[in-house]
Please model this.
Amino acid sequence: MSFDYDLFVIGGGSGGVRAARVAAQGGAKVALAEESRYGGTCVIRGCVPKKLMVFASEYPGHIEDAQAYGWDVTGGDFDWLAFRGKLEGELDRLEGVYRSLLKNSGVETFDTRAKLVGAHEVELADGTRKSAKHILLAMGGWPVKPEQKGAELGITSNEIFHLGKLPGKMLIVGGGYIACEFACILNGLGVEVTQYYRGEQILRGFDGEARGLVSEEMIQKGVDLHLGTNILEMEKTGEGIRVKASNGRTDVFDEVMFATGRAPNTRDMGLEELGLELGRNGEVIVDEYSQTKVPSIYAIGDVTDRVNLTPVAIREGMAFVETVFNGNPTPVDHELIPTAIFTQPEMGTIGLSEEEAREQEPVEIYCTSFKPMQQSFAGRADRVLMKLVVSQQSRKVLGCHIVAPGAGEMIQLAGIAVKMGATKEDFDRTVAVHPTMSEEIVTMREPVRKA
Ligand code: NDP
Model:
């Protein structure tokens, strides 16, 4: 049987574009359909614009520090529209890069929605049908708001980059990556930020001590964080959005942002009709090779809701090409993935939290928290944290948790050692780089506790 293509990819985000490009470079005839903008969540409405906003939001702190270091400088006002214009220009540039990468690799692109109509067939929005030997689902995910009255008054992280003006007073709901990162960003940009999180501490699932410090630092920097708190009612009034919360407070905000999780983009895609299995959150269920129940159809990235991070989607895409087009079955390794939360201060983490490790085996905890030199000199109260969770039996570092400016950069490098199975003694025999914050990771001699 002959097909129009060897591979048809649905979704032009990080995972889909990488898989399409690499398959095409290997000689496959590839097409890709994208209904929105190339680059997907990461480039258009996620990691990239978010990180640029993090940079923008850090300048008031830098200016204060510069004054403390003897510089005669004063901060002015932040021009949101000037920044937003520059940001949009940068995203246009990056989208162009994605488009040309596809074009130069010989991938045919369709700027339209596509859905499945057969094990080897997709239908474009205009009704045209295309056949392919393999189909790759890489549609990503989308923010979800809680089902509550008035939720339509709130925005999500999709809209935050397009605001006409910065709100004076803003409520952020949620305690995950997105809620915490944007609470810090907007606080840094001068917005009066309140954050409601329903649980007992933000960043559920991460190391307890590390998230405790992030939470303290966020409060110290001005985020009005309320734990164990959720919205009861919200309504539009002449002054803004009036929110009644479960902690008894009623407040009026200019904007409310829900960062209450994301769901895979699997609705109205013809998936279940074809016999694909979907999970509770709507995610496509796949095996370790990213293959679905229908052998010709694979899925990668956030649409599978495994580990929802750009570099993971890219790896899943590469492993898919290796498996399907290079005859080399390659499962994706989802163990020991380093990650960073770009709060202020950042958190960088890999491996098990202390709480998870203690459940698994006897551990030793090495931990230090201190005022870093640069900020301390400037008179800031900021603290950082370096923590290792070590197996008593194998001596391996099971988890490494860093809360510090630049923790994302640090954990990338520490992550190599942890991934290689380094022991505490391997860390110890590495000479410190002095004076740095990260030297503490190799100079912690005594465990603070055994558990
Ligand atoms: P998360 O799943 O991380 O967090 C969702 C938050 O919303 C949780 O705190 C959750 O509470 C809360 N929540 C869920 N439902 C409700 C509700 N009905 N009412 C009130 N609160 C609710 O999702 P995010 O949207 O923050 O991020 C999605 C994913 O994107 C992340 O998991 C991560 O994989 C990725 N990401 C990665 C980044 C990075 O690498 N730096 C940055 C941003 C996103 P509870 O804890 O109680 O469930």
About this structure: The pocket of NDP is lined by residues 146, 173-179, 181, 197-199, 204, 230, 259-262, 308-309, 339-342 (CB under 6 Å). The longest strand covers residues 129-137.
